[in-house]
Amino acid sequence: VQLQASGGGLVQPGGSLRLSCVGSGRSFSSNSMGWFRQAPGKEREFVGVISRGGGSSFYGDSVKGRFTISRDKDLNTVYLQMNYLKPEDSALYYCAAAPGSTMSSLPDRYDYWGQGTLVTVSS
Predict the structure, then answer these.
(1) Beta carbons within 10 angstroms of residue 29's beta carbon
(2) pLDDT one-digit tens code per residue, 19-67
(3) What is the DSSP code string of 71-123?
(4) In the 8-state DSSP scheme, what is residue 29?
């Protein structure tokens, strides 16, 4: 599975942004998909994960209620909709694929990673 994340950019506090992660490879639809982020000098942080079928998801406490993950099987794409953005949301955002039905907040449970897309929240 190869992953390509995009959609990052500069946004003002309180604004919204949608990230995309396009997957290639025949097993993409068989993977749970997660989003993580990493700010300079900080550890990689779990953002959220969506199940293979898209019917289940859960999120990290810092983004719960503001971020939503969805997936489009026909387009092999997973989205991260980010609303009410805060400066502390600024980071490099990564999408990642976990095997099968694994839904985890732990980075080492994910086998494949995209290259990251930068989100900056600033006025």
Answers:
(1) 15
(2) 999 998 766 778 999 999 999 999 999 999 999 989 999 999 999 999 9
(3) EETTTTEEEEEE-S--GGG-EEEEEEEESTT---S-GGG--EE---EEEEE--
(4) G
Nearest to 88 by CA among 51, 116, 47, 33: 47
d(CA 53, CA 58): 14
What span, in angstroms and rounded, lies between the C-alpha atoms of 91 and 101?
27
Among 41, 27, 43, 30, residue whose Cα is nearest residue 94: 43
Dist. CA 43–CA 71, nearest whole Å = 26
Residue with tokens 């694994």: 102
Note the pLDDT tens digit of each residue in 21-32: 999 876 677 899
Alpha carbon distance 97, 1 (integer Å) = 8
